[in-house]
Write a structure and sequence with these properties.
The chain has ten helices and 16 strands. The chain is an alpha/beta fold. Strand 1 and strand 2 form a beta hairpin. Helix 6 crosses helix 7.
């Protein structure tokens, strides 16, 4: 440990890219499922210990760290930790060693950038306090809400601003983008268990045709958007999982449906949730079956503070006028229908969630695929983005 501490004490900014790559590749090897990020958390804590940075465990496998600054003003940065249940097919020398799991959403990149910030400011006192949030369980388990439920901001202090980033393969490396205001969709993942009277496919009148009920239900909920809401009300409903229909000439007695709906406004969540139940009740009154509807997770829409967005854009413009190299190109993004539970932090604290470009060739694999391989050059872009925010925090104070 002494050798590690001496290495960090002599850390130079010129070495930041090499250190970011080390962090990223080490974390890429050990992807773990939500709320089971044990090795990941241990790696983060060992690194923070080597840096002599105070930190605490929270929400089972989460970690929160605090770096005291020159002024008593605190800003937070968040990185998610969990991997995905995918078998990696990148062929990388540092590919996953945890069979069946992979960092296919770039969370290894997010954590590496935040550890890079920790490494630099451990030996270079920041102008303000830094709260570094390593959050478990972003992939559907709501780790941000778990952290809030355990009073994360009482562990050290509550920040005045919060920031985060997410790698984005549709954006070129060297570019950073964000959407002021309502930026990412909220989401609700749901399951529906159907049960009825099974029977022979030749005698549907003696049974309950759950396949017909599902298809009619799916058509009906899609029409909710086109016939019950304005075209400007952005929302999507998808049922991507159906189990139970296994034999061609058998009407199944049980079936299950898994789906998600995405929304940009909280009122749309209430509308879709109640409407799904109403549609099921309507079919139940006609066809003899029972159902159980349950929500698995609900994420709020990601709302980037307009006030912070305006100040950030002004900061970037001022830096550009001073001809100071900020090491990235900034652009305004459109709303997206993907979701992220950093929304729960942004619901409590103003801030911005950025897209970090990771495409360095014409086409790269998309997020959540077995061959996703973001450009490591983006690591230093993310680091410089965060460093610019920290070093110019006074320009962002509301």
């Amino acid at each position: 440990m002494q050798n590690q501490e001496e290495k960090y004490k002599s850390f130079k900014i010129e070495l930041i890219f090499d250190q970011l790559v080390i962090y990223r590749r080490s974390l890429h090897k050990i992807p773990e499922p939500s709320l089971n990020e044990v090795k990941t958390a241990q790696y983060i804590k060992c690194t923070l210990e080597g840096l002599n940075i105070p930190h605490k465990s929270i929400a089972r496998t989460g970690v929160v760290a605090f770096i005291e600054g020159m002024e008593d003003y605190t800003i937070a940065f968040r990185a998610d930790m969990d991997g995905l249940p995918l078998e990696e097919k990148t062929g990388l020398d540092f590919c996953s060693t945890n069979s069946g799991y992979m960092h296919a959403c770039g969370h290894d990149m997010h954590m590496a950038i935040l550890l890079g910030i920790a490494t630099y400011y451990a030996s270079n006192k920041p102008p303000c306090n830094l709260l570094l949030i390593f959050q478990p369980a972003e992939e559907g388990k709501g780790g941000a809400q778990l952290m809030l439920d355990e009073d994360i901001f009482k562990v050290f202090t509550k920040p005045s601003l919060i920031f985060g980033l997410h790698v984005y393969p549709e954006l070129e490396t060297g570019k950073v983008a964000f959407c002021p205001g309502n930026a990412w969709a909220g989401s609700c993942e749901f399951e529906i268990d159907l049960s009825g009277k099974g029977g022979h496919g030749a005698e549907p009148e003696k049974s309950t045709d759950l396949a017909f009920i599902f298809s009619s239900f799916y058509t009906s909920i899609q029409s909710l958007l086109s016939r019950k809401k304005k075209s400007s009300d952005v929302a999507i409903i998808t049922c991507g999982k159906v189990n139970g229909f296994n034999v061609p000439n058998v009407l199944a007695a049980k079936a299950s449906i898994g789906g998600t709906f995405r929304f940009m406004d909280k009122s749309m969540y209430s509308f879709l949730n109640s409407s799904i139940v109403s549609v099921l009740d309507g079919f139940k009154s006609i066809y003899d079956f029972n159902y159980l509807y349950k929500e698995n997770s609900v994420y709020l829409p990601v709302n980037n503070s307009i006030a912070v967005s305006d100040k950030f854009l002004s900061l970037c413009e001022n830096i550009k006028k001073r001809k100071t190299n900020n090491d990235f190109q900034l652009q305004i993004a459109k709303q997206v229908m993907i979701s992220d539970d950093i929304s729960y932090f942004l619901d409590k604290i103003p801030g911005i969630y950025f897209f970090l470009g990771v495409k360095d060739k014409e086409e790269i694999a998309r997020l959540h695929t077995e061959d996703f391989n973001p450009s490591e050059k983006a690591l230093s872009i993310g680091f410089w983005l965060y460093k610019m925010i920290i070093d110019n925090f006074k320009s962002l104070i509301l």
